Amino acid sequence: MTDLDGHTYVDFVGEFSAGLYGHSDPVIRQAIIDALDGGTVLAGPNQYEARFAQALKLRFPSMELLRFCNSGTEANIFALLTAQYVTKRRKIMVFEGAYHGGTMVFPAGGNPLNLPFDFILATYNDCDESTRLIRENQTDLAAVIVEPILGAAGNLPGRDEFFATLRRETQSAGSLLIFDEVKTSRCGASGMQGRFGITPDMTTLGKYLGGGLPGGAFGGRADIMEHYNPYKPGSLRHAGTFNNNVCTMAAGLAGLTNVFTPQRADAFHDESEKLRLELQALTDARSVPLSFEGLGSLFTLHLGGTPLLHAADVTPLSRQVGLLFHMHGLLNGIAIAGRGDFYQSLPMTQAHRDKAKAVFASFVSEYGDMISRLAEQNSTTRRTMAI
Predict the structure, then answer these.
(1) b/e string for 63-82 if b means 16 or more Cβ within 10 A?
(2) Is the Cβ–Cβ distance between 98 and 146 less than 8 Å?
(3) Cβ contacts of residue 355 below 8 Å, gap of 6+?
(4) What three-state secondary structure class fits 200?
């Protein structure tokens, strides 16, 4: 991409994972043109909608039935409201550092713009605490909503045993387990739930789902989603003028079936993970205390050489190192997110990834000694926070 001053960058911001297909995929572009030729704002179901839903159901079997909406934020809101309705309970369990949309953000210190759900805040990747809180609140716990990779907190991966614990305990409590795969559904053909081998009760999608246009979806077990069946007495009404926006439906369908096929999804994940591991190997070979947390096509640069499990493990100083590389990258022809996030996209070639490695190698050469000193300071900060 080229900015207004004529500087060109390799785009590793990737619209924070929404830019999976790049800036102008020809297949998706043509699908949008064809949709425009057929007419927009049609005031009813269109020819793409059911086909898109079926394609999603095949990729994510947990979504036995699903509904479209306008964003991942909307998808999460409706999933939680559905869980409250089905279970006749009110409380929602979330995790520190989670981001479930602009109205459900859980940084340290809270967010004054959060929706007024009755939230229970737990520590990500803490099996014992999660078990205790679910059991203590089981009579009024409607759902646990969780990101398989804690995105805004620094792309911290969840552990297998953590999700196994959540699945076991929510089933025992009669609560719903909701996987927010708005970002992580790109991690292979069936997202992270496919990698974990865990079937949540509900799944939410967004970001790249609309092929670069606004879009989202929520779905799950048939007995849950049947409450939206308009042929049943007392069914829930889910309205929204642009829920089935014809351009989004056409672009999303073309992207999922002709571009980001299951085979391409798995191959892309492997290609992207190879870059993450190569960057980590480069760092380790030079004994610089940096780590790349995440998986596949989404990961974040962090200060410190030890794995990060919880949002509280990511210190402000670590964020500053990510910002430093962000600026170094801009000066050398690659763009990553200011908080240190890398998001890869399907059009990327080995040349683009080699460029990222070269720029990162120059960063380590220039700032390696300083980073080592900062890591000592960061370690002291983390020990103090733990006390």
Answers:
(1) bbbbbbbbbbbbbbbbbbbb
(2) yes
(3) 10, 333, 334
(4) coil
Report the distance separating Cα 198 and Cα 179, nearest Å.
10
Contact 302, 292 (CB under 8 A): yes
SS3 call for 6: coil
User: Residue 203 to residues 72, 307, 308, 335: CA-CA distances in angstroms?
Assistant: 11, 27, 25, 31
Q: H or E element: which one contains 11?
A: strand 10-11
d(CA 224, CA 73): 20
pLDDT (tens place) for every residue of the chain, 387 residues total: 999 999 999 999 999 999 999 999 999 999 999 999 999 988 889 999 999 999 999 999 999 999 999 999 999 999 999 999 999 999 999 999 999 999 999 999 999 999 999 999 999 999 999 999 999 999 999 999 999 999 999 999 999 999 999 999 999 999 999 999 999 999 999 999 999 999 999 999 999 999 999 999 999 999 999 999 999 999 999 999 999 999 999 999 999 999 999 999 999 999 999 999 999 999 999 999 999 999 999 999 999 877 899 999 999 999 999 999 999 999 999 999 999 999 999 999 999 999 999 999 999 999 999 999 999 888 776 666 555
Q: How far apart are CA 39 and CA 376, in angstroms?
A: 61
**Alpha-carbon span 116 to 139, nearest angstrom:** 20
Domains in the chain and their CATH numbers?
10-20+262-386 (3.90.1150.10), 26-259 (3.40.640.10)
